[in-house]
Structures are given as C-alpha cells and as structure tokens.
Design brief:
Layout (H helix, E strand, L loop, with lengths): L4 H4 L4 H8 L4 E4 L4 E3 L1 H12 L4 H7 L4 H4 L1 H15 L13 E3 L6 H10 L2 H4 L6 E3 L1 H8 L3 H9 L1 H22 L8 H10 L6 H10 L11 H9 L21 E6 L2 E3 L2 E10 L5 E7 L5 H14 L8 E4 L3 H4 L1 H9 L3 E4 L9 H14 L6
Parallel strand pairs: 5-9, 9-10
Antiparallel strand pairs: 1-2, 3-4, 5-7, 6-7, 7-8
Helix pairs in contact: 11-12
C-alpha cells in the first residue's frame, strides 16, 4: 500500500524552527524528527491515562497536522512497543566509529584539536569518537538512507555481476563477424543465439561501460557535390515532347565518357530531338566546364541562322549545366534553358539513346 503523501512531505525551514523550539525535540531535519527520552516517558504516561495519540502530542506542544497522521501513528506505536519491553523506555543508543584525521572535516578537526592535549595532536593519526547521526549530519544524509544503502550493498553487488555478465554477451554480439554494430544489430544477433534482451538495457549497459558504435561518416565526394551545388535549376519545358514542335525547336545536350586505354575521353554533344541529328560536339580530356561552353559556341556558329528565341536547349541537372557561365552563355545567345527532373533519364531519352548506340558502334574500335 502506498504511503500517504503527508508522510512523505518535507518540512519547511519555518516548521523546522518551530519544532526545534520545543524542549522535547532532540533532532529535526527536513525529513526526520526524533524526540528526547523525557518526551517518550511523558507520552507513555498520557497514553496510560487514556489520551489518544493526537491529544498527547498537542499536550506536549506538537501539532499532529504538521507532523502528519502516519508519522504520529508510527511514533505512538514505537513508544508503546518499547514501553512494554523488559528494558523499558531508554534513550537512543549511539554507534561509535573511528575516523582518521585525514578523513575528518578540517574545520571540525581544529575545534576538536583545541580540546585535545598537545601530545595527542602530535600523533600521526587522531581518533575521534563520532556517532552515526553526527556523521550523517556532516554528509547531509539521513540515518535511514545510510542504513538503507548499507543494507542494499549485497543487492547492488548481485546487480553489478548480472550487468557484467550481460555486457559480455553484448560485447560478443558487438564483435561478431569482425565489425562493430549498433543497438539494433546487437539486439538481432542476441535473438539469433536465443537471448532476449531489451534494447533499452543494451543502450544502458553500452553507455555504462563506454561501448560506442562508430558512426558512419558522410561520403566526402557527396558532401563536396552538395557544397558546390547551386539552385540554378531550370524548369522542364520539354515534358518529353521531343518531336511535336519540329526541327531546331528542341535541342538536347549531355556528356558521356569513352575509355581510351588508361584514360578517358569526354564527348559533349547537342542533338536535335526531332530529326536526331548531332548539330555540335566537342571532345575533352577533362571535365572542366570549358568544353561544354565550346559545344554551345559551335552550335551558334554553324547553325545560328536556323535558331530563334523559342529554341530550347534541354539538359540534365549536372553541375556543368547549373553553373553561372553556362546559364549566362545561353542568355547571351538567346536560347531558352530546360532541365530534366532530378535522377530521371527519360526526360532526356533521345540523347541517352544516342550515346548508347554510339558506344555500341565504337565498342570494337575503342582500345582497352
């Protein structure tokens, strides 16, 4: 059964000051209160006379509502149980502990040293007699918390042993097949060997024992492409209507590569989408943008008379066709720019088909 909230409530500084003012209070903190032996005897006398617990507390100067009904009930029960024992009511037994000079608070040690003799201060270790209550006050913890932690030591050791055993299983799954895995991979591997372990537990133990899965780094080439990519993409004006507007209306351009032994050759072509005629082409040993610009210049030089302001030059979204130089060249030559959708080769199908047939024809003649 859950303990009522009023039993768990923390006393405010004003309430602590009020309780300390009562002569029957031996010690009080925000969470705990203890009474003198005189209080216990007086409380027992009033109980024999027929007073209830709340009435006895009020007569001794305490407000039961401040203390809480559950606390009043427990105090009354302990006092009555102790009064019926052969020893009767007695003060709190003090536990004695030996504390070395080096582990004791320096300010407290100076106060104690003034009371000790000069001969004792010269010793290498000074032993002071302290109660558990005094030590708990110095550490800022309650006596119940201290004894609770002391009692749970064996449970903590057993839990630590279980954690270490489970971590060894996690480590085995982590190193399985020679590469490191994340939480999901470890979880699946444990399931394959018949061990069911919650992914939350796997994360907790990996964090506790400093076991981390290496995060895959981004592809540097892809990061570079994203860094230099511009937003100068044009609208798709063709919409795959390659032959509907007649010759010299839709022009397609693209770049491919041809292997030549240990190196490559990069041809850039401009194709009439209606009659499938190559109007201009340029070969280059590098992928710099200059040979693409030269292809457009050759087109204007040899076929400029047949071009007009409605002529569309269609390409993909490659970096050569989105650069400022290429866009400015088309504006200067009064050509409309169109681009395929990203990753869609069908929007430039005649040009791609031409490259395929060209490579088939040259496959026997290309060395290597």
């Amino acid at each position: 059964m859950e303990v009522p909230y009023e039993y768990k409530k923390v006393c405010s500084p004003e309430v602590i000051a009020m309780l300390r003012a009562n002569p029957y209070t031996e010690r009080v903190t925000a969470e705990q209160i203890s009474f003198t032996l005189a209080f216990k005897k007086e409380f027992w006398r009033l109980s024999i006379e027929g007073c209830t617990g709340n009435t006895a507390f009020r007569k001794l100067g305490y407000d039961p509502e401040v203390l809480g009904s559950e606390r009043v009930h427990n105090i009354k029960k302990r006092i009555r149980r102790a009064a019926k024992t052969p020893e009767g009511l007695k003060g709190k037994a003090k536990s004695r502990m030996r504390v070395s000079k080096e582990h004791f608070n320096s300010a407290q040690l100076e106060k104690m040293s003034r009371r000790e003799s000069e001969q004792r201060l010269q010793n290498e270790i000074v032993y002071l007699v302290l109660t558990v209550t005094e030590l708990c006050d110095m550490a800022g913890v309650s006596r119940s918390r201290y004894y609770g932690r002391l009692k749970a030591e064996r449970i903590r050791q057993e839990r630590e042993e279980r954690n270490q055993a489970d971590f060894q299983r996690i480590l085995g799954a982590y190193r399985f097949r020679g590469y490191d895995k994340g939480v999901r991979g470890i979880h699946i591997r444990l399931l394959h060997i018949g061990i069911r372990m919650n992914p939350k537990k796997i994360r907790r133990l990996m964090r506790k024992y400093k076991l981390f899965c290496p995060v895959r780094k981004a592809n540097p080439h892809r990061r570079l492409q994203k860094a230099i990519r511009t937003s100068n993409t044009a609208e798709n004006l063709v919409n795959r209507e390659f032959e509907a507007h007649g010759p010299r209306s839709i022009l397609l351009t693209d770049i491919t590569y041809l292997p030549l032994g240990d190196t490559h050759c990069y041809p850039s072509t401009i194709l009439d989408a209606c009659i499938k005629q190559v109007l201009s082409y340029t070969l280059s040993q590098s992928l710099e943008v200059d040979f693409v610009l030269e292809t457009v210049e050759k087109l204007v030089k040899h076929h400029g008379i047949s071009l007009n302001e409605k002529t569309i030059l269609h390409s993909d979204q490659g970096c050569h066709y989105t650069c400022v130089k290429f866009i400015q060249l088309l504006k200067n030559r009064a050509l409309r720019q169109s681009m395929s959708r990203r990753g869609n080769c069908w929007d430039n199908a005649p040009q791609e088909s031409f490259f395929g047939h060209m490579k088939d024809e040259l496959s026997r003649e290309i060395p290597g």
